[in-house]
Amino acid sequence: MAYELIDICFNFTHAAFRADEAAVLERALKAGVTTMVVTGSSVEDSRNATELAARYPAHLFATAGVHPHHANTWTRDALIRLRELAAHPKVKAIGETGLDYNRNYSSPLEQRRAFEQQIELACELKLPLFLHLRDAHDEFMEILSCYRKDIRRAVVHCFTGNGKQLDACLAMDLHIGITGWICDERRGFHLRQLLERIPSDRLMIETDAPYLLPRDLEPKPKTRRNEPAFLPHVLAAVAAALAHPAGKVATATTATARRFYHLDDD
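^ thats the sequence. predicted structure below, dont judge the formating
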């Protein structure tokens, strides 16, 4: 049975989708994934995300932001262009922004500057924040805490942290996004024990496609490319961990995503 689902992170601008983008969307719809939020990770990428959302208006929305990996491209002009993109009715959040000290493709100083200015932009425009966090929990939370009273809503997408880190995120009233990471027995099974701590009105699900193909998905696509059509697999893993019917979790996560992004305004 297909449930109505919303994929809150779909990297549809990725080159891997250009040859068959219509077919990818058709498979998603057949799987019950009726709405997808296309993630912007650079200024150019955010422009492309917005164009895709406008091309497929019935099912796509977009975010506009600069990922911490690309923080070394952050300039005053980037801020101006993001502000312009955010005025598009299809753009529903600022991000993907945050901190990633795992690889440091951009320096911590560059990441902090880009992160803080995007938070300020979201506060100015009264838009939600779509957040990335990896190996930088303490500093990430310290920065967010300085702005929290002015932040409308924020989600830590692809949460992979421990219980203490989850509790800190929830104490700051952040939403939590769960991906196919939860299906990886090598590094993600701890999330199954943490799910019950997340209030149902702050839990959302996502694929992060084309990345994070669920490790236990069978059969796997020959391309090893993840796509929104596999979101029901993530739903099933979340529902099993919570010992809740899949339909109940689908209804709750979809309603939460609609509220978070104000999708019913459209």
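The first strand starts at residue 5 and ends at 10.
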